[in-house]
Design a protein that fits this description.
Layout (H helix, E strand, L loop, with lengths): L15 H8 L4 E5 L5 E2 L14 E5 L3 E8 L7 H4 L6 E6 L6 E5 L20 E10 L2 E8 L2
Antiparallel strand pairs: 1-2, 1-3, 4-5, 4-7, 5-6, 7-8
Length: about 140
């Protein structure tokens, strides 16, 4: 049985720069060096032009709610300890094709029982980071007033 929420493997060369940036409280996505398309999640080849060359582009951290859900009951027992919580699919400001999932967080970084007032499709969000281990900081989203 999983006792804590599953954490990502952060040493994979494909997405290690993403996880390194989250430890600095920075949100980044890959940008193709050939056609300039953004891509997330990270992958070795551009799906647009098949280039293997890319760079990591910092994002502003601004986004809007594309979708959200309040899991009941959670699929994994480890998430039951967090109830109630909300998961948001955020569309980043820089590219409407890039969406990043994360917990809805309070301004102090809490996940459990976050006030959902104002949560709706299109609501403004700001990225926030929650440290789960020495090598894992996971992005989440805070509603912007």
């Amino acid at each position: 049985m999983i006792d804590t929420i599953p954490l990502p493997f952060t040493a994979d060369p494909i997405d290690a720069p993403f996880w390194e940036a989250t430890l600095r409280s920075q949100l980044v996505v890959q940008q193709c060096a050939g056609c300039q398309a953004h891509r997330f999640p990270p992958r070795p080849m551009c799906p647009q032009c098949q280039s293997l060359d890319h760079r990591w582009r910092p994002l502003s951290g601004d986004a809007t709610v594309w979708s959200y859900t309040k899991p009941q009951p959670p699929l994994l027992p480890a998430f039951e300890l967090l109830l109630p919580y909300v998961v948001v699919l955020a569309q980043v400001a820089e590219d409407p094709h890039i969406r990043i999932i994360g917990h809805l967080m309070s301004k102090d970084g809490g996940i459990t029982g976050v006030d959902e007032a104002g949560l709706k499709i299109g609501a403004k969000l700001r990225v926030a980071f929650r440290q789960h281990a020495s090598d894992v900081s996971i992005p989440g989203w805070v509603l912007v007033d």
